[in-house]
Amino acid sequence: MTEDVSAKHARFNDKKVRKTNERGRVLTMKYGKHQMMLIKKRMGVEDWIDDKLNELYNGDTVL
């Protein structure tokens, strides 16, 4: 009854799992009230810039 336990289980690369978990923690980080206010303000400015550029170039994209 002394079977090799590892023969019954799949082997996964722990490093890849750890990287995924670390990345998930960063992506789901909660921001404080002040930080969220700054993010919303910056996004508002970016939206305004995008709108003005669309007006200037009539929505045409030049690559």
Automatic annotation (TrEMBL):
GO cellular component labels: cytoplasm
GO molecular-function term, one example from the UniProt record: protein phosphatase inhibitor activity
Matching Gene3D superfamilies: CPI-17 (1.10.150.220)
SUPFAM superfamilies xrefs: Myosin phosphatase inhibitor 17kDa protein, CPI-17
Similarity comment: Belongs to the PP1 inhibitor family.
Protein name, per record: Protein phosphatase 1 regulatory subunit 14B
Keywords: Phosphoprotein, Protein phosphatase inhibitor
Lineage of producing organism: Eukaryota, Metazoa, Ecdysozoa, Nematoda, Chromadorea
